[in-house]
# Entry
Amino acid sequence: MPVRLGVDGSPEILLVTSRTTRRWIVPKGWRMKDRKDAEAAAIEAFEEAGVVGRVSDTPAGSYSYWKRMADHFVLCEVTLYLLEVERQLDSWAEKDERRSQWFKLADAADLVDEPELRSAIRNLSAEGLDRAALSARIAAPV
# Structure
């Protein structure tokens, strides 16, 4: 979950649209061989949203959803990691395939379809994600 503190100091989360259904989601992907899950999450956020920052080693939540394949659906279990975004590039691999936009946490929770993802975003809001709380949850730069 790419997060930052907005100009007013309130936490924001970056959502992207899925490529097929165009619904709002967080950047995510499949596990990567020889990569820790948190590192893979940061790589996916880079590819899908062009963001670079520091990722937490500790999961910030999880959710499940049905992924639409060509001829069937697959139940996917997603582990969420916080990525404290330091910058967003002007160009990245999937920029022309997705929309990306920063939202206040409450707005983002209202926009995502998956109930468990909605809850995970609302939990961030309930925790009072300020600079100290964010820094306490994040590890080394990726």
Observations:
- The first strand starts at residue 2 and ends at 5.
- The beta strands are 2-5, 11-17, 24-25, 51-55, 61-68, 73-80, 83-88, 100-104.
- The first helix runs from residue 37 to 49.
